[in-house]
## 1
Amino acid sequence: MELTGKMEEFMNDLIGKRMEQVYQEKDGQQYDPFNEKLEMKLQKIFQKLSDKQRTILFDYMTETSNKCSDLNEFYYRMGLRDGLMLKEVIQVMLDALTV
């Protein structure tokens, strides 16, 4: 496995572990406090739709949710990368000051 593959695997493991840690800290609760209310409203809407309409709406919501998850992961990775780069810059500056 080349270096970039190992780095990618490391990043995936790191992000997965961090997400699990945050999830456990929140006791598995959703971050959105209105989630339950929205779910009830959505169920009322679904009851009024035909099976075909329900399927279309469900598929749309699933696809949108997946894209949002991908986008959130992208931003998380960029923030993590930027933080690591900042750490390196600060370390170089500290090393230069202590020489």
Note: Residues 23 and 29 are 7 Å apart (CA to CA).
## 2
Amino acid sequence: MEDDKPWTLMCGLVAMDHTNFCYRVCSACERTLPDTATTNSTPSLCNVCNFNSSKPPSKRLFRVLVSIASDTKVFVVICFDRAARVLFGCSADEFFDFVKLHPFAAVTAGKVLEGEMFRMTLSKPKNGNAQHLRVVSVVPLRSGFQPAIETLRELYGVKRGGP
């Protein structure tokens, strides 16, 4: 753990921050868009790539703070989109839309994932200002693991693809 190489550990998920689980990026170049995009009804457009496409101008990506516990230590780590999709089982846009319809779904997702065991590969941040370890990969250790969205759909009685 002293060098900058990623390392793998077995851990349990202790808690998840459900208050700010995603951010907006440009659909074309994936640069982060200003936070004003989430408060307006019209999302901000990227002024770097001069977005011009049939795709929506922006999309959401996961950025979730998670507390995990190994056999010796508790870590606060950050799961970006690729790793968080394993936990949630859907895109950040899909989860955001689900939470809009079911306001307590984000809290419930944290409760659903609490106690699950994973093999996680962690790395130190490349950005000197960043304060949390990054989750490079997540592998559930329980054979019956269900991503959070599947359990939420069952709890809320929502069929796949529906609201």
Note: The mean pLDDT is 87.
## 3
Amino acid sequence: MPEDPDELAVLDEIQQELILQEQLVIEEYERSLQFDEECLNAILDGLDASNKIICPVCRKNHLTVRSHSVFCPCGLDVPAQDMTEEKLRSLLENTITEHSHRCLHNPEFTVTSGMEEEASLLMTCLVCDFWMILL
């Protein structure tokens, strides 16, 4: 065991450097874990959002589906009897697919309502003159 004060100072300095290096490695590991957690949360948020249905009218917000109506913050509010997200997703996908077999252009979606009628979701295409009431 060294007892020379110079040797003890050198050993103490080496020990301090090792402790500092260990702390730096731990900090880097913690930053890496935090980054991994943020990435995982972003992926999970994306998966959760992918189950939502984007409003076909505004193409920005997610639709909210209740058993008797479908609505969006953009103003879309259409009555729909016994509607579920699965039924609505299937209806939109099937109608858009059916249109795409005849026409390469993207259809437009609007909400229409008459004086005494309830609001309806209408899909139209000005290019091929296609229209259909979805809800």
Note: The chain is about 45% helix and 15% strand.
## 4
Amino acid sequence: MSGKRDKQLESEVLNWIFAVLGEPVPKGEFEDILKDGVILCNLINKLAPGSVKKIQSKGTNFQLMENIQRFQAAVKAYGLPQEEIFQTADLFERRNISQVALSLFALGRITQKHPEWTGPTLGPKMAEKNERHFTEEQLRAHEGELNLQMGYNKGASQAGIGSFGNTRHM
């Protein structure tokens, strides 16, 4: 799995997280910084205040994994689709760190859909609905035209190809 990791994406995600939190990016590996889930919980609480009520800063592995699970539930409520949310073991047991980075990148992108969030966002600008309305006359305007599927292509034909109906010589 480590072959699929994108260090630049991980760096962008960390820079965004700590820009949102208003803190300097700590030294260390991506997965080590986020492993206990405390920073993730603080992040979602900054994006949507009160999302995670209880954050365990110390404790057993199980208690720290609960931080990640609380974060996952909060981002789902925030609007991140279930299929984009990483699994707890992906981060805590370092099974799929690239999926964690992609999931956090998606979270940064989703913030654009929340007008109450005026802080930094991540990723390309989200597409907006661009609905168009055509009159019946506009929809029928092309009906008299001959298109390329009608068998006319500026005089081009398949005459002279010679391969149709012949046997294949090997």
Note: The two ends are 47 Å apart (CA to CA).
